[in-house]
Amino acid sequence: MLLNCYQQELIEAGCDEAGRGCLAGPVFAAAVILPPDFVAGELNDSKQLNHQQRNKLRLIIEKEALAWAVAEVDHIEIDQINILNASFLAMHRALDKLNIKPQYLSIDGNRFKKYKDVPHACIVKGDGKYLNIAAASILAKTHRDEFMERISAEYPHYQWKQNKGYPTIAHRTAALEHGLSPYHRKTFNISAPQLKLFSEIEG
């Protein structure tokens, strides 16, 4: 069972990102402050849930959270500052948008760039341990999926509606055949040497 938050003394925001390992599109991040009595039975790391469960939980989180915000860093900025810094920046932007100032931050993962003067804890696999991080995981994932589905209509051959920009075989193959779209991250390796191997395994 997930705990509500990392500590109980200060107003805490949970933070997580989505899209860090993608070949195209922005990285999204969310920050969420939950009420102490928040309950949502299915809430867990967004990767453990299906599309319908995530969208259902998103509505509950956005309705019942004391404060929540979602922000993004686009592919151009990712290429300029690298994906790790872009992930931190997206979290900072989400925190900037909260209408309640957090006094403590719980961050999914093992690294973070300090946000103003707010103390924080980095928690490996935190989205499977704390509800506020899991909630941030859901919001970041669903908002990013929505964005990728929208731009998929512009470039259907990359199949972003299905793969959301992640490096699937179909996505890599389309990028090699059609070239890169304006949404692709130019510093990411599309033609990885594993592509042929993966194709043979899947075939």
SS-based class: alpha/beta
Number of helices: 7
CATH topology: Nucleotidyltransferase, domain 5
Helix content estimate:
25-40%
> Low-confidence parts, pLDDT < 50 over ≥5 residues?
193-203
Overall domain count: 1
Distance from N terminus to C terminus (CA atoms, Å) equals 39 Å
Give me the CATH superfamily.
Ribonuclease H-like superfamily/Ribonuclease H
Given this structure, which CATH class is correct? Alpha Beta
The global form is globular
- Our Rg estimate from Cα atoms comes to 17 Å
Q: Provide the spatial order of strands within the biggest beta sheet.
A: 3-2-1-4-5
> What is the helix/strand order?
EEHEHHEEHHHH
Q: Based on DSSP secondary structure assignment, what is the total number of beta strands? A: 5
Largest sheet: 5 strands, mixed
The CATH architecture: 2-Layer Sandwich
Task: Look at the structure and give the mean pLDDT.
Answer: 91
- Strand percentage: 5-15%
Catalytic activity: Endonucleolytic cleavage to 5'-phosphomonoester
Family: Belongs to the RNase HII family.
InterPro entries: RNase_HII (IPR022898), RNase_HII/HIII (IPR001352), RNase_HII/HIII_dom (IPR024567), RNaseH-like_sf (IPR012337), RNaseH_sf (IPR036397)
Domain RNase H type-2: 10-200
